[in-house]
Every structure is written in structure tokens, then in C-alpha cells.
Design a protein that fits this description.
- The longest helix has 20 residues, at about 90-110.
- By secondary structure, this protein is mainly alpha-helical.
- The chain has helices spanning about 5-10, 25-40, 75-90, 90-110, 120-135, 135-150, 185-195, 200-215, 250-270, 270-285, 310-325, 330-350, 380-395; strands at about 50, 60, 155, 160, 175-180, 225-230, 235-240, 365-370, 375-380.
- Strands 5-6-7 form a three-stranded antiparallel beta sheet, with no helix packed on it. Strands 1-2 form a two-stranded antiparallel ribbon. It has a two-stranded antiparallel sheet with strand order 3-4.
- It is built from 13 helices and nine strands.
- Strand 3 and strand 4 (about 160) form a beta hairpin.
- It has a single domain, classed as Alpha/alpha barrel (Glycosyltransferase).
- Bound molecules: glycine.
- Glycine (GLY) binds next to loops.
Length: about 400
């Protein structure tokens, strides 16, 4: 990746992010989310909402479930319940979240559908969050065990965390393959390093994110979703897409994952290269939005009538806010990124929630799981709901990430 300064100029030249919204707008938006949580807390105490809704309704699934491709998604609901507890300190939320932590413990002990890199998503929002909010040593220990399992996916020669399969399986079809979503899994490794003082967690996370910057983020700030580095030689081969429109286009959610993962890497390492890369990816994203600032499912599409991915918009808003907080107060881009995040959130709140659909148990409509697979298209996504709530919390208080 080499930074192209003209991309930054283009985003600076835009006045589209002057939103004029007050905190009341975001408070009302968060009230709606809390209302939805309250209505569905009982139904989703021992089971979890599916990855995507069906006709705007999440189906109940077990913690480790392949139904609706939910193998990586159960912690997003737990994260919402922890956020509700953090906001209110009401025991009803803590009770449910603690039951979830117990279920994540069992899942880890059984190694139930954990042969993949999304251990980071699963254990950051359940057990790291639980430890942060309650000081539970048990939650901390589970999260550290999960971090150990994730760290074992690191491949020395290629310097990456392999997406799926056992590393010793030399014939595995995804040997040496990593995907951009993992940018949000590596914070669990950084966290484990700060908890234990064991530098190897940090090194693995740092090396993985450096490979992401080097190979997945392109010179114009867009990104590949998937990349392969030869596990024997360390030679990079090529990048492609799985959920995006075409290999050389830019899947919106993948872009959002890296927009958020890069400033989180900066938070833990203080290495400014992650800030420069984060700005670059954010500028590309902001330069490829339709009129109402809620991205289409692939950034190659900028038309107002296109199929949105609201979950990508919500993740991107969190990334923009995380980036902004690490920029000096006098950095002119700081206000720009903050305003862009607020404008995106305002647009989501105004036009993309399920507020008009009392039969729905989701929060944000118009998400997409995988358009090429015709999976969860124009539906709620449980991670979209989580990141929308997280972004609103970030706007309304000084929030310490669970990541
Ligand atoms: N991490 C899988 C996805 O974003 O669809």
C-alpha cells in the first residue's frame, strides 16, 4: 500500500458531512435499541439471534450453530446485552450476559465450531467485555484461553492468522489464506498480551495487521477481502473477493472491518503506520458513498437506489470514531471523520431502522450477509445491530472498547 494524497483531498473537499444533528437524535436512536433489547431479552436468554433475520425476524440458534451461518455471530447479541448493562447497571442484563459467558466457556471447552479465526469476535464481546465490566476472573481466564487458541492459528512463515483449518493440515484448501474480517479478531491477541505480559500475542497481532496493510489494502485505499501468502515460502500470491462484487472491486463490509481494525491496532501499539493506513481506507470509503451516506453492499456501486449494507455503515461509523479519537485535536481530519460518522449514524437512524415494523426483533434493516450467495439480503444482521448500538454509545459517552 502506498498512500495516494489526492484521495484525501477529495474527501476534505466534501461538505456532505455537516450534519447539524443534536445529541437528542442519538439518544432517541439508542432508546429504540434498548427498547428492542428489552422486548427480546427473554427469548434470547439461553439461545441467540441468528446471524441474519428472515423477513426481518431473527430465529433462535444455539451458541455454536451453523444454522444461518451463525458460527461466528453469537457474541454480538451478548455484546448488546453487556452494553445495556454498562448503560443502566440493571442486574437483568448482567444476569443474561453472565449466562452467555458460561455458554461461551462450554463452547471453548468443547472446541465447538471454533476451528476458525472468529474466536476474536466471539470472546471479545462476551468474556473480555464481561471481565471489563464486572472484574470477573473467570471471564478473564476464558478470554485468555480463547486468545491462546486464536494465537495457535498464526503461521510463522506467512505472518498471518489463517482463516480456517488446522495449520498442520498441509493440504487444507485455505492454507495461507487470510481474510480482512480478521482485523477485528486480532484485538483479542493484543488484549491478551497486555493481560499476561506475553509479547508473543502482540507480535502475532502486529505481524498479521502489517500483512493486511501491505497486501490487502490497495494503493487507492480500497481493499481485497481475501488474500493468500504461500505458507512455505512466505511469498504473496493474490487477492480476491468472496462476498463482494468482483475481485478488484471493494466489498463494503470488508472495507469497514479494516477501517475499524487499523485504529484499534494503533490503540494497542502506538504505531502511526496504522493511523495512516486507517485514514487511507476511510477516505476511500467516504469517497464512495451514495447521496444519503449509507453504503451499498459493494463500494463500486454509489447509486441512491442500490442495495445497502447497513451493517457495513455501522461498523464504518465505529471505525471513523475510533480513528478520530487518536488524531490530535488540531488535525483537520479529526472533525471530518467525527462528522462523517455522525452523519452516517443520523442517516441510519432516520431511514434504515425497523422502527416502523413492530413485528421485527431486529434493529437495523437493509443489511446483506452475502449477495453473491443470496444469503440474508435486505435483512437485519445481528452484527449490524451490535455496531449500530456501539456507535451510538460512543457518540453519547466516553466509552472504553471491549475490543
Ligand atoms: N465475517 C463475515 C462477514 O462479515 O460476513
Amino acid at each position: 500500500m502506498a498512500v495516494n494524497p489526492t484521495a484525501c483531498e477529495a474527501v476534505r473537499a466534501t461538505h456532505r458531512f455537516n450534519h447539524g444533528l443534536s445529541k437528542d437524535t442519538f439518544r432517541a436512536a439508542l432508546d429504540f435499541v434498548m427498547n428492542r433489547i428489552d422486548h427480546h431479552l427473554e427469548a434470547f436468554t439461553d439461545r441467540f439471534p441468528s446471524a441474519h433475520s428472515v423477513d426481518q425476524v431473527y430465529q433462535p440458534v444455539d451458541n455454536a450453530s451453523l444454522d444461518y451461518y451463525s458460527d461466528w455471530t453469537s457474541s454480538f447479541w451478548t455484546g448488546m446485552v453487556w452494553l445495556a448493562y454498562e448503560l443502566t447497571e440493571e442486574p437483568k442484563y448482567r444476569d443474561v450476559a453472565e449466562r452467555h459467558v458460561a455458554s461461551f466457556k462450554t463452547r471453548l471447552e468443547k472446541r465447538d465450531i471454533l476451528n476458525h479465526h472468529d474466536i476474536g469476535f466471539l470472546y471479545s464481546l462476551s468474556c473480555v467485555a464481561g471481565y471489563r465490566l464486572t472484574g470477573s476472573e473467570e471471564a478473564k481466564r476464558i478470554a485468555l484461553d480463547a486468545a491462546k487458541l486464536l494465537s495457535m492459528r498464526f503461521q510463522e512463515k506467512s505472518g498471518i492468522i489463517q482463516v480456517r483449518g488446522y495449520l498442520e493440515d498441509r493440504g487444507h484448501k485455505e492454507r495461507g489464506v487470510f481474510i480482512i474480517d480478521c482485523s477485528m479478531n486480532v484485538p483479542l491477541l493484543y488484549w491478551a498480551s497486555t493481560m499476561t505480559g506475553d509479547r508473543t500475542y502482540y507480535d502475532k497481532a502486529y505481524r498479521h495487521m502489517s500483512q493486511v496493510m501491505e497486501h490487502m489494502v490497495r494503493d487507492d485505499g480500497s481493499s481485497y477481502q481475501v488474500y493468500h501468502i504461500d505458507a512455505d515460502t512466505g511469498e504473496p500470491t493474490r487477492g480476491w473477493t468472496s462476498q463482494g462484487h468482483a475481485d478488484e472491486d471493494c466489498w463494503s463490509r470488508g472495507q469497514a472491518w479494516v477501517m475499524y481494525g487499523l485504529p484499534l491496532s494503533y490503540r494497542y501499539t502506538g504505531d502511526k503506520k496504522f493511523i495512516d493506513a486507517a485514514k487511507h481506507t476511510c477516505n476511500y470509503f467516504l469517497n464512495h458513498l451514495p447521496e444519503d451516506l449509507v453504503c451499498n453492499w459493494d463500494l463500486v456501486f454509489t447509486d441512491q437506489d442500490g442495495q445497502r449494507d447497513t451493517s457495513a455503515a455501522a461498523i464504518a461509523a465505529c471505525g471513523l470514531l475510533e480513528l478520530a479519537r487518536h488524531l490530535p485535536v488540531l488535525d483537520e481530519d479529526r472533525t471530518l471523520y467525527e462528522n462523517a460518522a455522525l452523519a452516517i449514524l443520523g442517516s441510519l437512524a432516520a431511514n434504515y431502522t425497523t422502527a416502523d415494523d413492530p413485528g421485527s426483533n431486529g434493529v437495523l434493516g437493509h443489511g446483506v450477509y452475502s449477495l453473491p450467495k443470496n444469503l440474508g439480503v435486505d435483512e437485519c444482521n445481528i452484527w449490524g445491530d451490535y455496531f449500530y448500538m456501539e456507535a451510538l454509545v460512543r457518540v453519547l459517552r466516553d466509552w472504553k472498547p471491549y475490543w
